[in-house]
Design a protein that fits this description.
The chain contains six helices and seven strands. The strands form two sheets. It has a four-stranded mixed sheet. The protein has a three-stranded mixed sheet with strand order 5-6-7, covered by helices on one side. β3 and β4 form a beta hairpin.
């Protein structure tokens, strides 16, 4: 179950007038997504920690969103192509699903405004399948680009992201190999080109 972030928790503890270390620290996750349970959780943290209520509301909103993401992953596992947050502004979870069956957007009460869930359908592959295929190509990628900066899956677009220095050798290898790699993966490969003087840390 999500816990308060370390820095936020430390701030709350400093703001507490009396803190008994033998008391069990309350979870910031509301019992449900109802407005009443969200308000009750804020009040519970206020009674336990004291301090700035705005900070407490942010802690509850963050924990609620993290818990909601885990529940969405479990609910849509068979169709899940990706899930991410976009909290600028507001509180938004974006869920990418395979297939064309529509899924209505959702909204839940939160301590700092509604928690929104937005669905995007039409993805050809699930996140689990894309990661499985990507893992099978790992050794081949390392052989092709032994000094690459990294690679991973961008669940927002359903692409593999490959990070390379912009050198003539890498350009030539990519031109010869990327189309074949995309055919093996079954989804696009996007290359992020870095300047030739870019260094890896540690080297």
């Amino acid at each position: 179950m999500p816990q308060l972030p370390g820095l936020l928790l430390a701030t709350l503890l400093q703001a507490t007038v009396v803190y008994d270390p033998d008391l069990e620290r309350p979870s910031p996750v509301p019992a449900s997504d109802s407005a009443a349970d969200v308000a009750a959780k804020v009040a519970e943290l206020k009674a336990f920690f004291g301090g700035d209520e705005a900070l407490l509301r942010e802690a509850v909103a963050t924990a609620q969103q993290s818990d909601l993401i885990e529940r969405l992953r479990a609910r849509h596992g068979a169709r899940l192509a990706g899930v991410w947050v976009d909290n600028d502004p507001g509180w938004h979870i974006i869920v990418r699903l395979t297939g064309t069956t529509p899924q209505a957007d959702e909204q839940y009460p939160g301590p700092l405004g509604p928690q929104h869930v937005h669905y995007h359908t039409g993805a050809p592959l699930t996140e689990a399948e894309m990661r499985r295929r990507l893992a099978t190509q790992r050794s081949g990628l390392i052989e092709l680009f032994p000094d690459m900066f990294g690679f991973g899956l961008d669940v927002r677009t359903g692409e593999m992201n490959l990070t390379l220095k912009d050198t003539p050798a890498h350009r030539a290898t990519a031109a010869a190999a990327i189309e074949h790699l995309q055919l093996k993966l079954g989804f696009p490969v996007r290359i992020q080109w870095l300047s030739q003087d870019t260094r890896q840390f540690p080297p």
